[in-house]
Protein backbone atom coordinates (compact mmCIF):
# COMPACT_ATOMS: atom_id res chain seq x y z
CA UNK A 1 0.00 0.00 0.00
CA UNK A 2 1.21 3.53 -0.75
CA UNK A 3 1.64 6.33 1.72
CA UNK A 4 -1.71 8.08 2.51
CA UNK A 5 -3.79 9.64 1.13
CA UNK A 6 -5.58 6.96 -0.84
CA UNK A 7 -9.22 5.84 -0.93
CA UNK A 8 -11.16 2.88 0.40
CA UNK A 9 -14.60 1.55 -0.49
CA UNK A 10 -16.07 -0.20 2.58
CA UNK A 11 -18.74 -2.68 1.50
CA UNK A 12 -20.67 -4.20 4.44
CA UNK A 13 -23.32 -6.83 3.84
CA UNK A 14 -25.40 -9.70 5.10
CA UNK A 15 -25.99 -12.58 2.72
CA UNK A 16 -29.24 -14.48 2.64
CA UNK A 17 -27.45 -17.81 2.17
CA UNK A 18 -28.92 -18.52 -1.29
CA UNK A 19 -27.00 -19.53 -4.43
CA UNK A 20 -23.49 -19.87 -2.97
CA UNK A 21 -22.10 -20.97 -6.35
CA UNK A 22 -23.41 -17.98 -8.29
CA UNK A 23 -22.29 -15.68 -5.52
CA UNK A 24 -18.77 -17.13 -5.47
CA UNK A 25 -18.46 -16.75 -9.25
CA UNK A 26 -19.60 -13.12 -9.11
CA UNK A 27 -17.10 -12.39 -6.33
CA UNK A 28 -14.27 -13.75 -8.45
CA UNK A 29 -15.46 -11.81 -11.50
CA UNK A 30 -15.58 -8.60 -9.49
CA UNK A 31 -12.06 -9.07 -8.18
CA UNK A 32 -10.74 -9.77 -11.69
CA UNK A 33 -12.53 -6.68 -13.02
CA UNK A 34 -11.11 -4.54 -10.22
CA UNK A 35 -7.56 -5.74 -10.94
CA UNK A 36 -7.88 -4.48 -14.52
CA UNK A 37 -9.16 -1.09 -13.40
CA UNK A 38 -6.78 1.92 -13.24
CA UNK A 39 -6.11 3.05 -9.68
CA UNK A 40 -6.80 -0.32 -8.04
CA UNK A 41 -4.51 -1.00 -5.05
CA UNK A 42 -5.94 -4.13 -3.43
CA UNK A 43 -8.95 -5.89 -1.92
CA UNK A 44 -9.53 -7.58 1.43
CA UNK A 45 -12.63 -9.63 2.32
CA UNK A 46 -13.73 -11.08 5.66
CA UNK A 47 -16.92 -13.07 6.15
CA UNK A 48 -18.22 -14.31 9.49
CA UNK A 49 -20.28 -17.42 10.21
CA UNK A 50 -23.64 -15.66 10.15
CA UNK A 51 -23.27 -14.43 6.56
CA UNK A 52 -22.19 -10.94 7.60
CA UNK A 53 -19.13 -9.68 5.85
CA UNK A 54 -17.05 -6.73 4.81
CA UNK A 55 -15.02 -6.15 1.66
CA UNK A 56 -12.47 -3.36 1.65
CA UNK A 57 -11.22 -2.24 -1.75
CA UNK A 58 -8.38 0.24 -1.97
CA UNK A 59 -7.88 2.81 -4.72
CA UNK A 60 -5.51 5.65 -5.51
CA UNK A 61 -8.36 8.20 -5.65
CA UNK A 62 -12.12 8.57 -5.62
CA UNK A 63 -12.40 8.97 -9.39
CA UNK A 64 -11.06 5.41 -9.79
CA UNK A 65 -13.82 4.10 -7.50
CA UNK A 66 -16.45 5.95 -9.51
CA UNK A 67 -15.07 4.60 -12.80
CA UNK A 68 -14.99 1.06 -11.42
CA UNK A 69 -18.56 1.21 -10.15
CA UNK A 70 -19.87 2.77 -13.37
CA UNK A 71 -18.93 -0.26 -15.50
CA UNK A 72 -21.86 -1.96 -17.19
CA UNK A 73 -20.72 -5.40 -16.11
CA UNK A 74 -20.71 -4.35 -12.48
CA UNK A 75 -24.24 -3.04 -12.90
CA UNK A 76 -25.34 -6.50 -14.05
CA UNK A 77 -23.73 -8.11 -11.00
CA UNK A 78 -25.37 -5.51 -8.76
CA UNK A 79 -28.81 -6.40 -10.12
CA UNK A 80 -28.17 -10.10 -9.50
CA UNK A 81 -26.90 -9.26 -6.01
CA UNK A 82 -30.10 -7.59 -5.07
CA UNK A 83 -32.35 -10.29 -6.45
CA UNK A 84 -30.46 -13.25 -5.14
CA UNK A 85 -27.72 -12.90 -2.56
CA UNK A 86 -28.07 -10.14 0.00
CA UNK A 87 -30.40 -9.19 2.81
CA UNK A 88 -28.82 -5.76 2.93
CA UNK A 89 -25.57 -3.97 2.18
CA UNK A 90 -24.07 -0.53 2.36
CA UNK A 91 -21.07 1.17 0.84
CA UNK A 92 -18.98 3.92 2.36
CA UNK A 93 -16.38 5.71 0.28
CA UNK A 94 -13.62 7.19 2.42
CA UNK A 95 -10.27 8.94 2.13
CA UNK A 96 -7.53 7.26 4.17
CA UNK A 97 -5.53 9.92 5.96
CA UNK A 98 -3.26 7.88 8.25
CA UNK A 99 -2.13 4.26 8.41
CA UNK A 100 0.05 2.31 10.80
CA UNK A 101 0.44 -1.18 12.13
CA UNK A 102 2.39 -3.84 13.90
CA UNK A 103 3.68 -7.35 13.14
CA UNK A 104 4.85 -9.97 15.59
CA UNK A 105 8.36 -11.42 15.49
CA UNK A 106 9.58 -14.89 16.44
CA UNK A 107 11.64 -13.33 19.20
CA UNK A 108 11.35 -9.85 20.64
CA UNK A 109 8.65 -7.24 20.52
CA UNK A 110 7.69 -7.28 16.85
CA UNK A 111 7.81 -4.47 14.37
CA UNK A 112 5.83 -1.25 14.39
CA UNK A 113 5.35 0.78 11.23
CA UNK A 114 3.78 4.09 10.36
CA UNK A 115 2.93 4.94 6.76
CA UNK A 116 2.55 8.58 7.70
CA UNK A 117 0.01 11.25 6.92
CA UNK A 118 -0.63 13.28 3.77
CA UNK B 1 -25.29 6.99 11.13
CA UNK B 2 -25.22 10.70 10.30
CA UNK B 3 -24.86 12.22 6.89
CA UNK B 4 -21.20 12.27 5.70
CA UNK B 5 -18.61 13.47 6.46
CA UNK B 6 -17.68 11.39 9.48
CA UNK B 7 -14.62 9.28 10.28
CA UNK B 8 -13.88 5.57 10.43
CA UNK B 9 -11.01 3.66 12.03
CA UNK B 10 -10.43 0.45 10.08
CA UNK B 11 -8.66 -2.12 12.25
CA UNK B 12 -7.56 -5.22 10.35
CA UNK B 13 -5.90 -8.12 12.15
CA UNK B 14 -4.98 -11.76 12.31
CA UNK B 15 -5.21 -13.42 15.71
CA UNK B 16 -2.76 -16.09 16.79
CA UNK B 17 -5.52 -18.15 18.46
CA UNK B 18 -4.10 -17.83 22.01
CA UNK B 19 -6.03 -16.76 25.13
CA UNK B 20 -9.53 -16.47 23.70
CA UNK B 21 -10.95 -15.58 27.12
CA UNK B 22 -8.59 -12.66 27.76
CA UNK B 23 -9.08 -11.47 24.21
CA UNK B 24 -12.88 -11.56 24.53
CA UNK B 25 -12.77 -9.58 27.77
CA UNK B 26 -10.50 -6.94 26.26
CA UNK B 27 -12.83 -6.61 23.25
CA UNK B 28 -15.79 -5.98 25.52
CA UNK B 29 -13.79 -3.48 27.59
CA UNK B 30 -12.76 -1.61 24.44
CA UNK B 31 -16.33 -1.38 23.19
CA UNK B 32 -17.55 -0.11 26.58
CA UNK B 33 -14.75 2.47 26.64
CA UNK B 34 -15.59 3.63 23.14
CA UNK B 35 -19.27 4.07 24.02
CA UNK B 36 -18.28 6.49 26.78
CA UNK B 37 -16.04 8.50 24.48
CA UNK B 38 -17.30 11.77 22.92
CA UNK B 39 -17.82 11.50 19.18
CA UNK B 40 -18.43 7.74 19.10
CA UNK B 41 -21.03 6.70 16.50
CA UNK B 42 -20.84 2.92 16.42
CA UNK B 43 -18.70 -0.21 15.97
CA UNK B 44 -18.95 -3.20 13.66
CA UNK B 45 -16.78 -6.35 13.91
CA UNK B 46 -16.45 -9.30 11.55
CA UNK B 47 -14.15 -12.24 12.13
CA UNK B 48 -13.60 -15.09 9.70
CA UNK B 49 -12.74 -18.71 10.48
CA UNK B 50 -9.00 -18.30 10.02
CA UNK B 51 -8.66 -15.67 12.77
CA UNK B 52 -8.60 -12.78 10.33
CA UNK B 53 -10.92 -9.97 11.19
CA UNK B 54 -11.83 -6.35 10.79
CA UNK B 55 -13.32 -3.90 13.26
CA UNK B 56 -14.79 -0.67 11.94
CA UNK B 57 -15.37 2.08 14.50
CA UNK B 58 -17.20 5.23 13.46
CA UNK B 59 -16.60 8.70 14.88
CA UNK B 60 -17.83 12.22 14.27
CA UNK B 61 -14.31 13.51 13.57
CA UNK B 62 -10.65 12.58 13.63
CA UNK B 63 -9.98 14.36 16.95
CA UNK B 64 -12.38 11.93 18.66
CA UNK B 65 -10.39 8.98 17.32
CA UNK B 66 -7.15 10.50 18.58
CA UNK B 67 -8.65 11.15 22.03
CA UNK B 68 -9.99 7.59 22.22
CA UNK B 69 -6.67 6.02 21.24
CA UNK B 70 -4.70 8.24 23.63
CA UNK B 71 -6.44 6.83 26.74
CA UNK B 72 -4.11 5.10 29.20
CA UNK B 73 -6.40 2.10 29.54
CA UNK B 74 -6.34 1.51 25.80
CA UNK B 75 -2.55 1.64 25.91
CA UNK B 76 -2.56 -1.20 28.45
CA UNK B 77 -4.83 -3.29 26.22
CA UNK B 78 -2.60 -2.52 23.22
CA UNK B 79 0.45 -3.85 25.08
CA UNK B 80 -1.42 -7.05 25.99
CA UNK B 81 -2.60 -7.36 22.38
CA UNK B 82 0.90 -7.37 21.07
CA UNK B 83 2.21 -9.84 23.60
CA UNK B 84 -0.64 -12.28 23.47
CA UNK B 85 -3.28 -12.14 20.77
CA UNK B 86 -2.23 -10.94 17.33
CA UNK B 87 0.07 -12.05 14.56
CA UNK B 88 -0.31 -8.65 12.94
CA UNK B 89 -2.69 -5.75 12.66
CA UNK B 90 -3.00 -2.40 10.98
CA UNK B 91 -5.14 0.66 11.46
CA UNK B 92 -6.32 3.08 8.79
CA UNK B 93 -8.01 6.31 9.76
CA UNK B 94 -10.28 7.61 7.00
CA UNK B 95 -12.83 10.32 6.32
CA UNK B 96 -16.11 8.97 4.95
CA UNK B 97 -17.23 11.16 2.07
CA UNK B 98 -20.22 9.23 0.67
CA UNK B 99 -22.49 6.46 1.93
CA UNK B 100 -25.37 4.55 0.40
CA UNK B 101 -26.96 1.17 0.57
CA UNK B 102 -29.82 -1.17 -0.11
CA UNK B 103 -32.15 -3.41 1.93
CA UNK B 104 -34.30 -6.25 0.66
CA UNK B 105 -38.07 -6.27 1.07
CA UNK B 106 -40.45 -9.21 1.47
CA UNK B 107 -42.07 -8.29 -1.83
CA UNK B 108 -40.72 -6.01 -4.52
CA UNK B 109 -37.29 -4.63 -5.25
CA UNK B 110 -36.17 -3.54 -1.81
CA UNK B 111 -35.17 -0.09 -0.67
CA UNK B 112 -32.24 1.98 -1.87
CA UNK B 113 -30.89 4.83 0.23
CA UNK B 114 -28.23 7.49 -0.22
CA UNK B 115 -26.90 9.39 2.78
CA UNK B 116 -25.43 12.01 0.45
CA UNK B 117 -22.08 13.74 0.25
CA UNK B 118 -20.57 16.55 2.33
UniProtKB/TrEMBL annotation, chains A, B:
Pfam families: ABM (PF03992). Keywords: Monooxygenase, Oxidoreductase. It comes from the Bacteria. GO terms for molecular function: monooxygenase activity. InterPro entries: ABM_dom, Dimeric_a/b-barrel, Jasmonate_Hydroxylase-like. Coiled coil: none annotated. The keyword Acetylation does not apply. This is Antibiotic biosynthesis monooxygenase.
Amino acid sequence: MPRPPYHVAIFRYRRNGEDAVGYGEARRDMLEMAKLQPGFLGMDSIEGEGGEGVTLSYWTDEASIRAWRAQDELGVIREKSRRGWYDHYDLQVARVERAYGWSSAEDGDGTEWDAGSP
